[in-house]
Amino acid sequence: MAEKLSGAVLLFALVSVLGWTDSAVAETVQSEATVKKALQGRAKVAGPSAEVVGAPEDEFSRGTPRTSFIGFLQATRDRDFERAAQYLDLPSEMRSNGPALARHLRMVLGRELFPDLDALSLNPEGDPNDGLAEGRDRIGRITGETKIYDLLLDRVPREDGVYVWKVASATVAQIPKLHAEFGYGRLETILPPWFFDYRIIGIEILWWVAFVIVAFPLAMLLVTGVLWLLRRFRPDASPELEQFFTGPARLLLWVLLARFLMQTSHMPVVLKAFGEGKTLLVAAMAWMVLRALDLAAQRTADRLQAAGLSGAKVFLRPIIRLAKLATLVGALLLWLENLGYEVTTLLAGLSISGVALALASQKTLENVFGALTLYTAQPVRVGDFCRFGDQIGTVEEIGLRATLIRTLDRSVISVPNAQFAYMHLDNLSRRDRFWYHPRLKLRPETTPDQIRFVLVEVRKMLYAHPKVLAEPLWVRFTEFGDASLNLDVFAYIGVTEYDESLDVAEDLNLRIMDIVAEAGTELALPSQIQYELPGSPMDEGRIRNAEARVKEWRAQQSLYLPNFPADKIAELKNTLQYPQAGSPEMSKQRSRISQPQH
Fold it and tell me: Which pLDDT tens digit goes with each residue over 83-140?
C-alpha cells in the first residue's frame, strides 16, 4: 500500500510535468527568455555604464540606445523614478506625470517583454541596418489583445541641443494603454507599491509572497493529509517512507502548485524564464528519485535478508550509488538544457570519457560481474565452509572486487571474484549428512564365525544408533588384504554440522572397537612394521563365546547375513544410548526427563 502510494505520487508528478511542457515551450518561443539570458541581462544592468567612443557626454548615459535603456532599467531598479523619467521623451502634457509613467513602463516591461540588450546599438547614431528610420532603435514589441505595441527609442535633442536617446514620445503616449492592459489592475490599489517595485533576481515581491504564503502552506496541508492517511491505514509504515513524503514529495507538490499558479496567471517574463529552467522542479524530481531508490534498496535488502541472502546487500549498495549518480548527472544535464546552455558538447565528452573509463576498468568490471555471478548462482554464501583449489576455509565476505576466505590456520585469503567464480568449489556447509565409511582391517587369523559376529553386531549397532540413517547402510567383508581381512562400512551420519559429525564418528569408532574386542579378534597392525616376536595370542574364551553366539543365531535362524530384515531394523532403531552413559550430556538429558512437567 505504502509503496503504491509513493509510486502514485511520482506518477502524478511526471504526468503533471509532461502535461505542462507543451504550453511552457510555446511561451518560451514567444518570449525567447531563458535563465541564462536573464542572468546575463541582470549582470549588464547591475554593472557600470559602458563608455562608448564618440558618444556625447551625458549625466544619464543616454549617448547610445543601449546605454540609455540600461540607465532606465538601473533607475527603476533603484526605485528612482524621477531619474527614470529623464529617459522618456515626454510630451509637454505628460511631463508632470513622468515618474508614474516610468514606473508603469517598467512594470509592463517586467510582465511582457524580455529586452535583448545586445540587440540595442552602441552606435551614438543608432544602427543604420535595422530597417528603421534614422535616429530610431527598437526596444521590442508587445502583443496586446487588439494590437501590437512597438516600443521604440528616438534620438532627440536635449535642452542644450546635444542629441541623446530616449524612449520615443509615441511609445510614451502608449504607456497608459499598456499599463491598463498589462498592469496588475486592482491589486495595485490594494497592495503597497513595494510589492511591485522591489525585485529579487528580477521577480517582483508579489510573486515571492504568492509562492511562499499561498503555495507552500497548501503543499504542507496536502502532505499532512497524506501522512495522516498513511499512519491511519499503515501504522507499520517505515520512517523512511514518512521522510519520503515530508521531504521530496512536499517540495515537488509545492513546485507543481507554484507552476500551476504561474500557468493560470499572467506571470512576468523573468519568472517565466525561471519556470522554463525548472530549477526547483528538476531538484524536486531528482530528490524524489533518490529517496525512491533508498526505499527500493531498503525493501530489496529486507527481501534478501528474509531469503537468507544478507551478503548480497554488499552488492546492492554500489548499484544504488550508481543509480543515484546517474540520476544526479541526468538532472544536472536537464537543468543546464532548460537554462539555455548547450549540453551536446558536454554529452560527447562524457561518452568519450565513459569509453576510456570502461577500457581502464576492464578487470574491475570482470570482478564486479564475478560478484554478480556469485550472488545469483550462489555456489557459496557468507559463512559457508568450502574447499576451493587446494585450500579450505570459511567465506567471510563477498565484495565487489574479491572474496575473503579465512582458512583453518586463521589466515585470510583474498581471491578475485572473476577467478573465484570459475573455480571448482566444494561447499562443505551444504551437506545434508556426513558419509561414514571406515575400513576395518582384522587380523588374518580371525575365524569366519568371528567375522560373522563382527558383521552382525556392527550392523546392529549402526541400525540402533539414533544419529545414523537407516538407508543406505551396509557392512561387508569385501576383500582379503595383504596382511588383513578387510570389512568396509558404508553409512551416513544424520547431522549437518561438521563438529557434531566428528562427535558421532568418534562414538561409532569406539563402539566398533568394543565389538571387535568382544569377538576375540583385533585390528591388524600396519604390514610395513616388522615384529621379531610373534603377535600376542588371541583370547580363546572370547573366541569360543563369539563362535557360540553365531551357532545360536544359526539355530534360531537369526544370523542376519547378508541383510537385516526391515522389521528387525525398525526394532533396533534408536535403542542405543547416545551420548553414552557417563557423559555429561547424558546426565543433562536424564535430569531434564526427571523434572516434573507443569
Answer: 888 889 888 788 788 888 888 888 888 777 777 778 888 888 888 887 888 888 888 8
Q: Is 492 helix (H, G, I), strand (E, B) or coil?
A: strand
Sequence-ordered strand ranges (E) for 417-473:
425-427, 434-436, 439-442
Nearest CA to 219 out of 250, 265, 245 is that of: 250
Cell 513595494, residue located? 194
Phi, psi of 404 (to 5 degrees): -100, 130
C-alpha cell at 466: 539414533
8 Å CB contact between 400 and 314: yes
Evaluate if residue 528 carries a pLDDT over 60: no
C-alpha cell at 596: 516434573
Q: Which of 166-180, 213-227, 233-247 has the lowest mean pLDDT?
A: 233-247
Range 107-122 burial, b when 16+ CB lie within 10 A, else e: bbbbbbbbbebeebbb
Adjacent-strand bridge partners of 486: 441, 479
What SS3 string covers 200-226? Answer: ECCEEHHHHHHHHHHHHHHHHHHHHHH
The dihedral region occupied by 118, where left means phi > 0, alpha psi between -120 and 50, and beta the remainder, is: alpha
Cell of 363: 578487470
Q: Tell me 126's DSSP state.
A: -
Q: Which of 59, 142, 136, 133 is nearest to 105 (CA)?
A: 142
DSSP 400-422: SSEEEEEETTS-EEEEEHHHHTT
DSSP alpha helices (H): ranges in 198-312?
205-209, 216-233, 239-244, 250-264, 269-277, 279-306
For residue 538, the SS3 value is coil
Of 67, 73, 63, 62, nearest in space to 38 by CA: 73
Q: What is the pLDDT of residues 473-509, one digit of tens each?
A: 999 999 998 888 999 999 999 888 888 888 899 999 9
**Using CA atoms, how far apart are residues 124 and 127, in angstroms rounded to an integer?**
9
Give pairs for 262-266: CB < 8 Å, separation 24+: 263/20, 263/23, 263/24, 266/111, 266/182
Determine the Cα–Cα distance for residues 73 and 197; give it in Å rounded to an integer: 12
pTM (whole model) above 0.85 = no
In 3D space, the residue among 70, 58, 304 whose CA is nearest the CA of residue 161 turns out to be 58
List residues bridging with 489 in a β-sheet. 475
Residue 364 vs residues 86, 368, 369, 421, 581: alpha-carbon distances, Å: 70, 6, 9, 14, 58
Q: Residue holding cell 494603454? A: 177
Q: Nearest Cα to 114, choosing from 199, 31, 172?
A: 31
For residue 50 the three cell numbers come to 559602458
Cα–Cα distance measured from residue 43 to residue 37, given in angstroms and rounded to the nearest whole number: 10
DSSP letter, residue 255 = H
| Residues 515-547 as b or e (16 or more Cβ within 10 Å = b) | bbebbbbbebeeeeeeeeeeeeebbeebbeebb
